[in-house]
Amino acid sequence: MIRKTLRPLLLLAAILIVIMPFTVSAATEPLDEIRQLVQKHYVDEVPESVLSKGTSKEIMKGLDVHSVYMTKAEYEAFMNGIEQRIVGIGVVLEEDLNGVKVLSVIKDGPASSAGIVAGDLLTHADGVSLKGKSIQAAIPLISGEENTEVVLAIERMKEGRIIKLTKTIRRAEIHLPTVEYEMLGGNIGYIRLNSFAGDSSKELARAISKLGKADSYIFDIRNNGGGYITAAQEVSGFFPDVKEAFQLREKNKEPSIYPAVNQKEQIEGPVSLLVNEFSASASEMLAVNLKEVGAATVYGQNTYGKGTMQTMYAFSDGSVLKLTTARFYSPKGIAVNGVGIYPDVVTNVGEELTTAHFDHLMLKVKGYAHLSSLENVKTTKTFTVQMTKAMDFSTIDHSAIELVELGGQRIPVKVVVKDSKTVELIPEKPLVAGRSYMLIIHPRWVDTKGRQVKTGIYLNVTVK
């Protein structure tokens, strides 16, 4: 029950930055200005009992969890997160009653090198308790200037008991690309969007161009907590036939539908969209839209359910009020806030990519003969293929053989002819324990009389 109240670090707001001409003292909170902004722009009516509170923190407690007053340092850390510019230890965090919990550790970052693992609870940073602190308040204590150190007190659950650790970690610049991409086995383009940042559309266009002509795509927005609302409009425009991005409902205004920004590069062919419980805000804008118009099949788990937009109001002392000023819906009015997007194909956590990849491969082998699966094979497995008639293996088409790791790339295989009906397929590198594969042989071989094989074959393989 507690988990529903937690806000992961990645759940960045869909924001529209507004600079307000307020002049305030750097020594005090701009309390009167905060009251005015809340009363005028907050998405719901706010009672006087909330507006009359004596501090910004008390006022924010009367609003939704995404409205927060940030100091200059907290705001800078927040914006760096959206733009994937981070100097720190390299962890993704969420709030916990007793500190901040590590959701994941960035590969090759300082925390990873120090042995921090997902599930660790950070209770203190340089002796300062993190208990009860918001993510915005915890970030400046854990992150900091490059090449400085932070001492973390950690609680780790192991074999049913809590182990207390202390680690000193040197902060460094962490590189988090906005877009990652690769060509998966089967000529299936994989694109991962980590944030709806200012450069997202440029990086996506580059990724699509570099992938070339993929037969289909898997678009991954798992753990993507959002970003700029304008980026959501731009990303929507990469999908053919998507003309509208979302519907926005602001206080005391008629609903407005915002257009998608059409892009030159297009994600064409069947598309799978990967989501999970930490896909939020702008990610949900995209997901509900693509699902509504049938532009993608959604895989994963129900998304976070953050269907609100925040506006940033900046003050002269560098502090910022992040205020919920609108709710968004699909262009046709499907609600997101508090509901999330339910996937078309529900998968186990961590199996979103492999499941979608398998389905894409199945489209390629439609009408092929399905041979019995091979389970728990060795990593050094050699596959023997025996035909029913004599073949002309001298003209064998090596492109007809595809050994594909699910969620990964094509594995090169060496073909060894044993006799006129039999060949051995030897993977050129060991298979990976615990992974699944699909072996596909397309009907491009010919027999000794020059007749082409009529039906392809495929089989599923798991490695012990």
Automatic annotation (TrEMBL):
It comes from the Bacteria. SUPFAM superfamilies: ClpP/crotonase, PDZ domain-like. This is PDZ domain-containing protein. Gene3D superfamilies: 2-enoyl-CoA Hydratase, Chain A, domain 1, 2.30.42.10, 3.30.750.44. Keywords: Hydrolase, Protease, Serine protease, Signal. The keyword Hydrolase applies. Residues 67-142 form the PDZ domain. Residues 1-26 form the signal peptide. NCBIfam families: prc.
